[in-house]
Amino acid sequence: MLIRLEHIEKTYGTADHPVPVLHDVNFAMHEGEYYAIMGPSGSGKSTLMNILGYLDTPTKGTYYFEDVDNSRASDTKMARIRNEKIGFVFQSFHLLQRRRAWENVALPLMYGDVPKRERRERAEQALLEVGLKDRMDFYPTQLSGGQCQRVAIARAICTRPKLLLADEPTGALDSKSGQQIMDIFDALHARGMSIIMITHEHAVAERAQRMMHIYDGVLSGGDPV
Ligand SMILES: Nc1ncnc2c1ncn2[C@@H]1O[C@H](COP(=O)(O)OP(=O)(O)OP(=O)(O)O)[C@@H](O)[C@H]1O
Ligand SMILES: [Mg+2]
Predict the structure, then answer these.
(1) 8: domain CATH number?
(2) Residue 15: is its pLDDT beyond 60?
(3) 148: Cβ–Cβ under 8 A, 6 or more apart, which residues?
(4) Which ligand 1 atom is the nearest neighbour of the CA of 48?
(5) Which of the listed residues 10, 17, 19, 215 should we mutate to test ligand 1's pocket, taking the one with most ligand atoms within 8 A of CB?
């Protein structure tokens, strides 16, 4: 199993004023699978994604990644897992405006000890995969929204992660650009990438192998663990 969540709970707030957000979330996913998570605003989707991506820790329960429970690992170790194994794509791209497309893509490689020439080569390869090799030297302001999202996907995959997490990747795009992003996800999945994508749009979620739903922090539709 790539991922296994057992009885995950997340509560924000204080002991006096707890704000429960996730309730007994259970699911498992094999390597190479492509899942979508749908749910209304405030239902806990991003909270769940932050836990999956080691940006946050569960209050209770166990999260196994590659059959290892890292939930009590140090911040440094979690940062390393995040950097080496997980790629992120967000609704609002999160590109650095003063860096060229390829420099944005190569950014996650700065944390490893990849030499500069190889960083540029790997960024170029990732940009080729999203059809933007000819825009390598452009700045984000010179790119369309859809192209910016493709740069963000290239950045997410250039470390060759095990898991790609996408939080509303088409949320800020027109439908044609959104289609292109979905086509890229299909291609990544076809070559073995494991993907979990959060979306509000049913037509987008239908591109995945499995659709899960979350309402008020309760997840349904996942494989029983
Ligand atoms: N750091 C935090 N502290 C306190 N409450 C939080 C925190 N982060 C999220 N919440 C609460 O948790 C609930 C779920 O938030 P979350 O961001 O996971 O929703 P979402 O499903 O991603 O919504 P959207 O579709 O609007 O992005 C919300 O009620 C939110 O107010
Ligand atoms: Mg959200």
Answers:
(1) 3.40.50.300
(2) yes
(3) 93, 95, 140
(4) 18
(5) 19
Q: How sure is the predictor about 103, in pLDDT bands with cuts at 50, 70 and 90? A: very high
Cβ of 217 below 6 Å from ligand 1: no
Which residues line ion ligand 2, judged by CB < 5 Å?
45-46
Name which residue sits closest to atom 1 of ligand 1, judged by CA.
12
Domain hosting residue 42, numbered range: 3-220
Tokens of 144: 């369309």
Residues 6+ apart with CB under 8 A from 18: 11, 12
Amino acid 72: pLDDT: 83
Give the ranges where the chain is alpha helix by DSSP (H). Answer: 45-52, 75-85, 101-106, 116-129, 145-157, 175-190, 202-205
Looking at residues 141-145, what average pLDDT do you find? 97
Query: Would 225 be classed as within a structural domain?
Result: no
The pLDDT of 166-174, averaged and rounded, is 96
Number of domains the chain is built from? 1
* Whether residue 39 has its Cβ less than 6 Å from ligand 1: yes
Global pTM reads 0.95
- pLDDT given at position 224: 52
Instruction: Indicate which residue's Cα is closest to atom 26 of ligand 1.
Output: 41
What tens digit of pLDDT does each residue of 32-74 get?
A: 999 999 999 999 999 999 999 999 999 999 999 999 999 888 9
In a domain, 184, yes or no: yes
